[in-house]
Amino acid sequence: MRDYIKTNYHVHSDFCDGRGAPEEYVRAAIDCGIQSMGFSSHAPMASDPDSSWLMHMDRVEDYRNTVLGLKAKYADQIQIYLGMECDYMGVPPVNHRQEYGLEYTIGSVHSLLDKEEGRYYSIDGSVAAFAEAINNMGPKRLVKAFYEQSIDMIDAIKPDMAGHMDLCRRNNFDKAFFDWDEAWYKPLVMPYIEKLAESGTIVEMNVSKVRPGVEQYPSDDLLKECFIRKIPMTVNSDSHVPTSIDYMHDFGIQKMISVGYKSAMAIIDGKWEEIALV
Ligand SMILES: [Zn+2]
Ligand SMILES: [Zn+2]
């Protein structure tokens, strides 16, 4: 096993909905001792070409050239990898890795397809949008649909890593809409955890929203289930500004150690490898 190094593979920039140019993130990463990082702009979607949060299709080439240019420019200080955060919205996606020549992908579900009504709801948007989804679908049907779509996402995208695996809690941290400690919740999540385990998908410890009273993704309870199934994990800050490049990194590492993890995953010389945490 390799020695521990500081990493972050969930990094946005002004190529999608982040603030600041990629180079500002690289400089911030070097300043705080990150040795391996990746850019994961939201992948463009043909069905939503003018979205404000996805990268526009006509910027992909510039994105590739920019990230690969930074990789070469800073090669003696930090390893930089070209990735995207790819959405699965219930319809066959492009093969992002091949289409865009990526070195890794994060698979995520931000928009939930309500198959019964044939419409989408934003899981990652405003509380009002989430409230509308809950009101129309009901908490149990929404949670079930979210994890089923997440399972389909793994099959469709085959990502290196699953993004914020329990994002359906995002607008519900105070349990205003449902209580994930009630008995019905966990059985709806477990098939997804089994899917992650059997597919060998890395799960990110996403610490972007951590603050007093607000847990990371996955929640403490699900984190334990991930450890029991030996699901590999890496700590990401889901940066949308350069200053959050190592936000709560040590907290994420300590969380992993607290449930028993002894290693995390890092890309070293182009390959996913285990790095020691203890
Ligand atoms: Zn995301
Ligand atoms: Zn993200």
Q: How is this structure best described in words?
A:
It is built from eight helices and eleven strands. The protein has a single domain (6-276), classed as TIM Barrel (Alpha-Beta Barrel). It has 278 residues and is of the alpha/beta class. The protein has helices at 22-31, 60-73, 96-100, 127-137, 139-157, 185-199, 220-228, 249-259, and strands at residues 6-8, 34-42, 79-87, 104-108, 111-114, 119-122, 161-162, 202-206, 233-236, 263-268, 271-276. One zinc ion (ZN) binds at residues 10, 12, 85, 238. One zinc ion binds at residues 10, 12, 85, 238.
Q: Which structural class best describes the helix and strand composition?
A: alpha/beta
- How far the N terminus sits from the C terminus, by CA atoms, comes to 11 Å
CATH topology: TIM Barrel
Reported for the largest beta sheet, the result is: 7 strands, parallel
What's the CATH class, please?
Alpha Beta
Radius of gyration: 18 Å
Q: Tell me, rounded to a whole number, the average pLDDT.
A: 96
Question: What fraction of residues sit in β-strands?
Answer: 15-25%
Q: What is the fourth-level CATH superfamily?
A: Metal-dependent hydrolases
Order of helices and strands: EHEHEHEEEHHEHEHEHEE
The number of E-state strands comes to 11
The structural domain count equals 1
- Tell me the number of helical segments per DSSP (H or I, 4 or more residues long): 8
